[in-house]
Amino acid sequence: MFVVSPCPLPPPTASCRWFGLGRKNFKFFSMMSESDTTTPPPFSETHTPASNSSMPQLRVFSRTRYKNRPKTTTLHLLQNNHHHLSKKKVDLPDIEDFAYKGSNQLTQSRKSSEVYSDMTLVESEVASPRPSGESPAHWDKVLEGIRKMRCSADAPVDTMGCEKAGATLPPKERRFAVLVSSLLSSQTKDHVNHGAIQRLLQNDLLTPDAMNNADEETIKKLIYPVGFYTRKATNLKKIANICLMKYDGDIPSSFEQLLSLPGIGPKMAHLVMNVGWNNVQGICVDTHVHRICNRLGWVTRLGTKQKTKTPEETREALQQWLPKEEWDPINPLLVGFGQTICTPLRPRCGECVISELCPAAFKETSVPSSKSKSSRRNKKL
């Protein structure tokens, strides 16, 4: 702001100087003589020399900001781990205020532009993530509770999972059946996948030689309606040919070789290694295992408390602490649990015996409102 005091007008030789203050571009000016080169201090009174008493003069109070003046921040006031600020009022940078956490650990947070002496710096309430490799609390009790709920074996995976494919076939043919079932299981429910495997078996197409010689259109009709059946039929033909050419009619015996097959991902490769070759190299993590492990708080992204975003991240985090003897049975155990109790939508927490140990219990059990139900009904009509 500026205040103009009543005085005569300036001489004709005077020139205007503009002073910009900060980001708000408030402009202040002072009418000064060309011979006067002295920059006025903040809140100073500037005027032209009274060379002629009869000549009008204008006096203007202006405010000047020194660009090179160092800014004082809260960091300058933190010494010897004290939790109080000094009595002095200070200016802060764009990201103001700092929450103090331990020695030399400062967390920035956007707050007010000024901090006063009666404000106390508090420790951050965010707990540090669980160290890598450390098992979560009560995980063994949780696992035992899930086993008790799964003892009835009433989930689809118990009778129609990939592990059951070709159970009556010779070992070599069964391995191929497990590989085919794993490929078809992606984006497909167990009962749909099981039906496709049964139709291939009934038509004597569940061997590499028969699959390689079969027409692709025939394979598509037999595996329909599995997800992406057209692409999967193409991949099955390619896999059958690779098994004949490179592995003498058998399937690859290493994890890396299985991953090189078209359409085979880490989850499928681990399942085939576990079931087909009885060689446990990792945990088979599908959407059920991924979802349940995050609900239980068993897995987090590396160095954070955030949930894992993909099944592969879940597998890596889970393998860091879960005992290796649990790597093989954990998949059918949690898949069945996810199909019956810990379902994707509206999990049945009221029926779960380990809900007291689950941090996500009763947080996703809400039933859609009548308004949303009626809107969906109107869409169908």
UniProtKB/TrEMBL annotation:
It catalyses: 2'-deoxyribonucleotide-(2'-deoxyribose 5'-phosphate)-2'-deoxyribonucleotide-DNA = a 3'-end 2'-deoxyribonucleotide-(2,3-dehydro-2,3-deoxyribose 5'-phosphate)-DNA + a 5'-end 5'-phospho-2'-deoxyribonucleoside-DNA + H(+). CDD domains: ENDO3c. Keywords: 4Fe-4S, DNA damage, DNA repair, Glycosidase, Hydrolase, Iron, Iron-sulfur, Lyase, Metal-binding, Transit peptide. Residues 184-340 form the HhH-GPD domain. It is found in: Plastid, Chloroplast stroma, Chloroplast nucleoid. Its cofactor is [4Fe-4S] cluster. The keyword Ligase does not apply. One of its GO terms (molecular function) is DNA binding. GO terms for cellular component: chloroplast nucleoid; nucleus. Its main location: plastid. GO terms for biological process: base-excision repair, AP site formation; nucleotide-excision repair. Its EC number is 3.2.2.-, 4.2.99.18. Belongs to the Nth/MutY family. Bifunctional DNA N-glycosylase with associated apurinic/apyrimidinic (AP) lyase function that catalyzes the first step in base excision repair (BER), the primary repair pathway for the repair of oxidative DNA damage. The DNA N-glycosylase activity releases the damaged DNA base from DNA by cleaving the N-glycosidic bond, leaving an AP site. The AP lyase activity cleaves the phosphodiester bond 3' to the AP site by a beta-elimination. Primarily recognizes and repairs oxidative base damage of pyrimidines. HAMAP family: Endonuclease_III_Nth. This is Endonuclease III homolog. It comes from Crotalaria pallida.
